[in-house]
Amino acid sequence: MSCISSRTVGVSIYLNPTISATATRTFICKGESTKLTGVGAATYSWSNQQQGTTVTVSPLAQTTYTVIGADINGCAGTAGIVIRVSPCTGIDQAGINNTEFEVYPNPNNGEFTIRAEKEMTLILTNELGQLIQNLELKNLNGNKITVNQLPNGIYFISEENNRAGIHTKIIVGR
Q1: Going from the N-terminus, what domains does the chain have, and what CATH number goes with each?
Q2: 3-state class percentages of the chain: helix first, strand second, coil last, to nearest 5
Q3: Integer CA distances (angstroms), 51 to 34, 36, 45, 72, in order
Q4: 3-state SS class at 134
Q5: Which has the closest alpha carbon to 80: 46, 33, 35?
Q6: Hey, which bits of the chain come out as E strands?
Q7: Is this model's pTM higher than 0.70 or not?
Q8: pLDDT digits (tens, 9 = 90+) for 121-130
């Protein structure tokens, strides 16, 4: 004789949380810091051994930070964010590879002058590293640049192909 029995078992399935990582600034000058924030979980563990939703970092070179976020069920997800670092050779004047280079006034109201000893092409980028404008320097005594359409903030001027190592931070504020 054979007996048949049945039993109902409840199974819970938890999905891994979707984690995202943000930064107050993803492009900083050497010596500056930025805050990283994790979103989407209950607890966070960062690749630089810090714990918490928000952590402050000051990398010396481009660094990718990874965060592992765990929900209340112990399920985990990950996200990453890249922080780029520039030497930002100075605000007022830099002597780079025997090339005199000057930006003034800095900070400025959206109008500034660039003086260089040679003709060159520069690029203007925002804090995220996005190209804003190409700047052609033709007048060695001073090139007036107008960027009134830009919002207040920090921008970077670099040589197009980085031969002279020019990289300067400018501040636009009205």
Answers
A1: 20-86 (2.60.40.10), 93-172 (2.60.40.3080)
A2: 0, 50, 50
A3: 16, 11, 5, 16
A4: strand
A5: 46
A6: 20-23, 27-29, 34-39, 43-46, 54-57, 63-70, 76-86, 93-96, 99-104, 111-116, 120-125, 131-137, 143-146, 153-159, 167-172
A7: no
A8: 889 988 888 8
In this structure, is the dihedral angle defined by the CA atoms of residues 52, 53, 59 and 63, taken in order, positive or negative?
Answer: positive
How far apart, in whole angstroms, are the C-alpha atoms of residue 108 and residue 51?
39
Per-residue tokens: 31: 């010596």
CB 40 within 8 A of CB 23: no
- pLDDT over 50 (residue 42): yes
Contact 17, 78 (CB under 8 A): no
| DSSP strand pairing (93-96 vs 76-86) | unpaired
